[in-house]
Amino acid sequence: MKWIGVFLLSFSVISLSEAQLVIDNVEPRMDQHGQIVDLHDGRVVKYQDRYYWYGTSYGSTNGFTKANRYHCYSSPDMSSWKNEGPLLADAPAGVYYRPHVIYNKATNVYVLWYNWYAELWDGRFGVAISENPEGPFKIVNDDVKMYRSKEGLGDFGLFVDDDGIAYISYNTISNHRVSIEKLTEDYTSSTMINGGVIDEHMEAGSMFKRGDYYYLLTDYTCCFCNQGSGARVYMSKDPLQGYEYTGNINRYPGSRTLRLNDGELRNNLYEQLEMRDSSWSYIEMVFDGYHEISQVDVGIFTGNRAGRCGDVDHPEVHAPIKVPSFSIEYLDGANWRVIPDDLVLQDESSLHIGLTLQLDGVKARRLRVKPSKDNSFDRIDVSEIKVANSSGQLQVDEMDIFLAGRSIAQRPIIPAQQTYVLQLGQGDEVAYIWMGDLWGSASDNIKGHDYQYWSAPLKFLEDGTILPMRWVDEWSYSFAD
User: Fold this and answer.
1) What digits encode the pLDDT tens for the residues 375-409?
2) Confidence at residue 4, expressed as pLDDT on a 0 to 100 scale
């Protein structure tokens, strides 16, 4: 990581006007002594003129031991990190995870919430306070009662609204049900006002506000998984309830295929769509931005011959080709909408069918080609997909194509488990940085040395929905500090 400060000189007074942050996601972050920062599943937040990084230190353990400790590092610039030492004083023996610190302006106290287990998996929340952001924090309650305490208390996140009211988003141990609950005015306990279950089998929630919308980002249980977890986005105009799922910004729609937009229409170069459990797999296209789509071409190949291997009484090399029917959908904000037309047969041979749909400039960033349920067969071999806008055919680097559907796994884009969404900047110029632990990434196989991924600023559409992330090795951002 590098940091470049831009200074303005006026009347012999130097003031910080703008800062440029450069984030490197390839190398580990180091402290002032050249040691790898061993902090995980916490948050980075700015208090006064310094950034504070709170997290769990795992050392050389597997993370499921009573050796876990909370630590704090601070930095003036998110580049040079100073080890401020242990965060929590006189903690009873147990397994500790997920420390989050928020500041209460009314009481002028920093409040630490944490998830701990006297024995796995007897989950509970603890609360500690300090007059200083770096601690040490003194425990005021190591068994905070919540609305869903009887289901066990697991992963969580904290959020302070513009009006100073604080909320906790947390999941239960039983079925990992996620909900949001309002805290008391001093932030040290729950009001027991709970908005209801938003989803199940979730963890690692992070909540923030942008404009009129509240966001909760969470995903399926990861448990230190090397492949990472996704980031399901839920949106509402109420901090407690009314959340609607609007998409996953950290999962591919399915399995990427390079065959369908390589420009090579050749025999045997095809992908197979299948009907399983009354549901078709389908093709989803993700563009590099919005495009005025004018035409979609779908090439169909006959596929393999029918019958069993060695069936000498079956003379066909290829199965008879059939004309399938499809529907085309485009993503409108967070909703998929059907384009009211069918693909039209343009050309046909004994091996190939060419289908074309002319569109009236549908503005889209994602399209789906989905087989219709009324097809009389259970397999379709697609050999090529072409998409054109008003300027001509989209090129390979302008779109990704995926095989998608219920039976096809949606792999994470960033192989990390979410920790927090950091806000940089002030006023209307705020950037939202997604943060996650890259479990299993340390070259020396020491858990405490696993890297973290800090995303480039999230991109929001006009309706408030968030575009999917992409892995970026290094990025920079200028903002008012």
Assistant:
1) 998 999 999 999 999 899 999 889 999 999 988 99
2) 36
Nearest to 220 by CA among 418, 42, 466, 58: 418
Determine the Cα–Cα distance for residues 227 and 348; give it in Å rounded to an integer: 43
User: Is the CB of residue 64 less than 8 Å from the CB of residue 21?
Assistant: no
Examine the domain organization and report whether 238 and 272 are in the same domain: no
* Secondary structure element (H or E) that encloses residue 99, with its range: strand 95-104
pLDDT of residue 346: 86
Same domain assignment for residues 104 and 69: yes
Q: Collapse the DSSP code of 392 into the 3-class scheme (helix H, G, I; strand E, B; otherwise coil) and give the result.
A: strand
User: Which of 404, 431, 466 is the endpoint of a domain?
Assistant: 404
Q: Which domain holds residue 151?
A: 2-250+413-479
Q: Could you give the 3-state DSSP secondary structure of residue 151?
A: helix
Angle at 18 between CA 16 and CA 23, to 5 degrees: 115
Instruction: Return the beta strands (E) in 229-334 as ranges.
Output: 232-236, 244-248, 254-256, 271-276, 279-280, 282-301, 326-332
Same domain, 383 and 349: yes
> Cα–Cα distance between 183 and 157 in angstroms, integer?
12
The two most distant CA atoms of the chain are separated, in Å, by 96
Our measurement of the distance from residue 433's CA atom to the centroid of its chain's CA atoms, rounded to an integer in Å, reads: 11
Helix, strand, coil share (%) of the chain residues, nearest 5: 0, 55, 45
Residue 298 pairs in a beta bridge with 355, 385
pLDDT in tens, 295-332: 999 999 886 666 666 666 665 667 778 899 999 999 98
Pairing mode of beta strands 429-437, 190-194: unpaired
Query: What torsion do the CA atoms of 3, 424, 333, 409 make, to the nearest 10 degrees?
Result: 60
